Amino acid sequence: MPNQSTQTKLAIFDLDDTLIRGDSSVLWTQYLWDKKIITDPRFVEADKEMMELYNAGNLDMVTYLKSNLQTLEGIKIELVAEWLEDFVETIILPRVYPTALSTITSYRSQGIPIIVISATVSFIVNKIADRLGADVSMGIDIKRSNGCYTTEVDGIPTFKEGKVKRLTQWISHQPITDAYIYFYTDSANDLPMCYFADETFIINGDPRLLQAANENHWPQYSWSL
Predict the structure, then answer these.
(1) pLDDT beneath 50, residues of the chain
(2) Which Gene3D superfamilies match (predicted)?
(3) I need a labelling partner for 147 at 20 to 30 A (CA). Which of 166, 200, 201, 224 fits?
């Protein structure tokens, strides 16, 4: 194994309930509901069911997105982008953990790239990650048609082992011969990435993740607003 000092260090962060309090996908649906952009309460209820399945590790992400993304059917991407700007400014930024920001700043001061990888759709993740000063962001990419988002996933979803696949894919296209990875997460859905990383840090971990953290001696932290 090469010495750590010869490796390219990368600081990888999950997004929801790790860098921010709450789930950005659920918050986005609620935002659309509050703004009366969507008027069918079933979409809000479906997000609650999604979170229960997600927390239990039983979510079929592709099926969920096929349903959820109907909320944006026929709406031009440019208009969605305008809503996202307001959403991030008014809903997300007040929910960013101060310790998350200081941790990102600490890595940045060491010249270590910041990467946010989330199981939320990429048009939400990218907007938030950009405001947090991330160098790279990855979410679940959605196919586009006629200037609108579809309900179809494009490529490998950044969910469970998909996060590792997407990260290694990205690394393979960089001038990186060997990466040393710091990883931060709250969710047992990220266990594949936890085991892949060189150092894993648990932030407000869920019960299943805390059990794994205790077994693997991963540091555990509580971040709050």
Answers:
(1) 1-4
(2) HAD superfamily/HAD-like, SG protein - dephosphorylation function
(3) 166
